[in-house]
């Protein structure tokens, strides 16, 4: 068998190489490394692509979430509700403010935040709710908004660039959203990068202020801020990839459909499906199998770059042991963590590569 990576960034890079090199040459010629023209161009283009009024480029996705939360009013004495099944950055953004992440379980079908569990978790200290668009799926934000009432909802849109729910783009469904352009994302930079999207002019202004050392004018610092800006070099890469995002996402959807068809004949595999109203971005294609760790080991041994997203719910990480939530606290997330398996998926994956992955998976399930 030929090795198949979980993600193939080289194929993307080859497609945009000439355009990126031309853009980088201009950046180095003008030496506009911070706040250069490509940054503004990207912010406008991504806002348009997401159908929001404002996009503020920042240094990374974790900063984006923290800035969005701070901009909607989260403070050190507050609580923020997040799903137990997510990458740790969702909770980290809350903790960095000094607020407390309040975890809730997820739905058993899509492993997205369960609005009914959100309702149970709201207290007088709740300052925000963060639905996560996990694996490129769009969370049920409209129901979360109903439950939230006046409490701000901030989307974690790090895995959902280009995904929609009922015709509306992820990242534009609530008060604000933070997204990540980590290289492996559907829209990935050549390093760390992120953005906050919002329809609210005041929220966007607040994000820009905090991200620029609390300063809207040089040396006039209104609040204690941070240094989180989108580099011009990364904006060049993102501009080139954004022009291809819709096409690349469509290829992901075709590949996801192909996997589902191939796996329909394989016993012991639970395949993912989109929720009603969703056009998902398929950042990951995540199946569920028994004896997952053994299956993963066998796949990796034959060169299949499968992975796990994520092996531990937040409450079972050492970082969040202080919450005092042991095994059994969130049974849906905990069961899923032992079964989920991410198969190779990227825009340039071929049908023959997918057939090879499925063949190897079927063999791995047999031991």
Helical region count? Answer: 11
Elements, N to C (H/E): HHEHEHEHEHEEEEEHEEHEEHHEH
CATH class of the largest domain: Alpha Beta
| Biggest beta-sheet profile | 4 strands, mixed
- Taking pLDDT < 50 over at least 5 consecutive residues as the criterion, the unreliable ranges are none
**How many strands?**
14
Query: Separation of termini?
Result: 18 Å
CATH superfamily of the largest domain: Type I PLP-dependent aspartate aminotransferase-like (Major domain)
Question: How do the strands of the widest beta sheet line up side by side?
Answer: 1-9-8-5
| SS content category | alpha/beta
What is the total domain count?
Answer: 2
Determine the mean pLDDT.
97
What percent of the residues sit in helical stretches (DSSP H or I)? Answer: 25-40%
Q: Please name the CATH architecture of the largest domain.
A: 3-Layer(aba) Sandwich
Which value, in Å, is the CA radius of gyration?
20 Å
Briefly note the CATH topology name of the largest domain.
Aspartate Aminotransferase, domain 2
Portion of residues in beta strands equals 5-15%
- Please tell me what the overall shape is: globular
């Amino acid at each position: 068998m030929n090795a198949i990576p979980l993600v193939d960034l080289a194929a993307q890079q080859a497609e945009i190489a000439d355009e990126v090199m031309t853009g980088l040459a201009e950046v180095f010629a003008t030496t506009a490394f911070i706040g250069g023209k490509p940054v503004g161009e990207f912010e406008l283009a991504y806002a348009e692509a997401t159908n929001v009024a404002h996009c503020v480029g920042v240094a990374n996705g974790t900063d984006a979430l923290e800035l969005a939360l701070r901009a909607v009013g989260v403070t050190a004495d507050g609580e923020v509700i997040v799903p137990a099944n997510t990458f740790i950055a969702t909770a980290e953004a809350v903790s960095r403010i000094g607020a407390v992440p309040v975890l809730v379980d997820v739905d058993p079908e899509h492993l997205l935040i369960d609005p009914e569990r959100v309702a149970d978790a709201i207290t007088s200290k709740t300052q925000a709710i963060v639905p996560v668009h996990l694996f490129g799926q769009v969370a049920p934000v409209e129901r979360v908004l109903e439950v939230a009432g006046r409490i701000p909802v901030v989307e974690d849109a790090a895995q959902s660039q280009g995904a929609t729910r009922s015709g509306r783009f992820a990242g534009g469904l609530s008060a604000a959203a933070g997204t990540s352009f980590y290289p492996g994302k559907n829209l990935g930079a050549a390093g760390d990068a992120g953005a906050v999207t919002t329809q609210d002019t005041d929220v966007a202004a607040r994000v820009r202020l905090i991200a620029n050392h609390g300063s809207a004018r040089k040396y006039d610092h209104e609040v204690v801020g941070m240094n989180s800006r989108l580099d011009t070099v990364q904006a060049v890469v993102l501009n080139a990839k954004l022009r291809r995002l819709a096409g690349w996402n469509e290829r992901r959807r075709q590949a996801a459909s192909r996997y589902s068809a191939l796996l329909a004949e394989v016993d012991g595999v639970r395949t993912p499906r989109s929720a009603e109203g969703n056009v998902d971005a398929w950042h990951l294609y995540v199946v569920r199998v028994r004896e997952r760790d053994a299956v993963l080991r066998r796949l990796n041994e034959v060169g299949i770059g499968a992975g796990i997203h994520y092996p531990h719910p937040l409450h079972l990480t050492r970082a969040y042991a202080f919450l005092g939530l042991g095994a059994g606290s969130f049974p849906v997330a905990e069961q899923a963590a032992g079964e989920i398996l991410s198969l190779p998926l990227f825009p340039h994956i071929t049908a023959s590569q997918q057939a090879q992955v499925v063949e190897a998976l079927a063999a791995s399930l047999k031991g």
